[in-house]
Structure formats: structure tokens, C-alpha cells
What does this fold into?
Amino acid sequence: MATYSSYKKIVNEQVIDGTVTEAKLGTETRHRLCTKWLIGDACRCSAGCCCLWTVPGCTRKVFFEIWGAGGNGSGACSCNRCHHFQGTGGGYYNSKMVTTNPGCQYTMCAAGVYRCLSRECTACNGCTSYINGFGLSDFCAIGGLQGRANTNWSEHCYSCWSCCLGPTSNGGDFGMGSHVGNWSGIFNCHCHMQYVKPSGAPMLGGNLAQAISVCYMRCGCWIAPPGHGGQNAMSTYCGRCCGQGGTGGPGVVKVTFT
It folds into this structure.
């Protein structure tokens, strides 16, 4: 049986098109879409960024998007050998839509980078970004894959691709990884041209390749953008050349709420 309160509800069919305009609505009844970003400092050894966020009044839906930190670049400390290189990977992406309530709190952490400036042929993976709070369970985005190098005359470093992550992966609704590049040039004792391509994080972008020609050693020296893979140390000569890789870019958190 219908109740009195049910007769007071307005349904779509009762509203004539064009009669309720934006000018006739008070500001408190209008749709509001707000966005917050949390990004660690883009520096060589970023510590990341964490905060406690309280859901503001009138908010019902929150869309969380997170990216892990980029992987660190490999070093070069093998004597009398050129290197094959595998580029570093950008941080993984994960997303989750939740129904929430004003006053709910969320601990949000955009990952810092693993503070090892590697001199070894295998570096460190990027660190994990995460959010804890109402409606979330183990929600995180892992860091990008580390850079690699080898001194084998015939074994190349192959690229790999981490694509879509299905529902419930790392507590999210949808996520994806990034491409981990490779490529080195002519491989002999004076390999005059070397090229390798770290990757950016999905949808954050970044297209930073590195190449050297006739250079004894170049360390991983540039500052990686957020979520982007770091730089490998590179050499085009055999000899006692040592170099260290650079750290990846910090993680990112984006919050869209209405």
C-alpha cells in the first residue's frame, strides 16, 4: 500500500523539460565535483606524501585513483664489459569507487621511492601507494619494475608488458600496469650507441628515453616525473667504469568526490 510520504516524491515524468534551470537552483542543491591530488616531492630520493582526509558534508560518492612509484634504474659496475639494458617500469594504476558518508576518514599515502642508488645490475622495484578507510579493503597500487642490466655477450634484456588488472586486484575495481622497455645498441667492446626507454605510469604520461654515444659512463642523474621509471647507468666502453642508477618518480593519489 502506498504511504503518504511516497506521494511527496518527485519523479522524472513530473518535471517538464526546461522548467528547472541552473538559475532556479540554490548553490547547496547543485551538483559539485571536487578533486584532490596527493603527490610526493619530485626529487632524487622522494619520501612520498601521506595525509588523513575527512569526507566533507553532502558527499556520497568518492572515486579513488592511485599510482605506485616508478622503479629504480640499474647500476653499471662490471669491468671489461658493455651492458645490455632493460628500462625501468612506471608505477601501476588502481581505482575504486565507494559510497561513503560525511565525516568518514581515509589515510592516503602517495608512495616515496626506494632509496637505493644501485650500482648492481638489478635495481629496486618502486614502492606502493595505498589508501585505507571506509569501504576499502587492501586498496593499493604497486610500484614499477626495477631496471636491469647484464654483461652477457649474447643474452638481451627483453621487454615485458603488464596490462589490465581485473576487479578486486589489490582491492580495486580496475587497474593496469605499464610497459617495461629494453633495447641496447650494437654490443661489442666499443658499442658506440646505447639506447634504453624507461616507461611512465598509465595515464600520467611521461616519455623520457635515454641514449649515449661514445661515453665511458653516465649515471642515472635526472629527476623522474611522478610515477615514471628511473634512469639506468650506461656505458659504451669496456673498462673499469662504475656508475649508479637513479630513483624513480614518486607515487600519486587522486580523489574525486561529489
Summary: Residues 4-7 form the longest helix (4 residues).
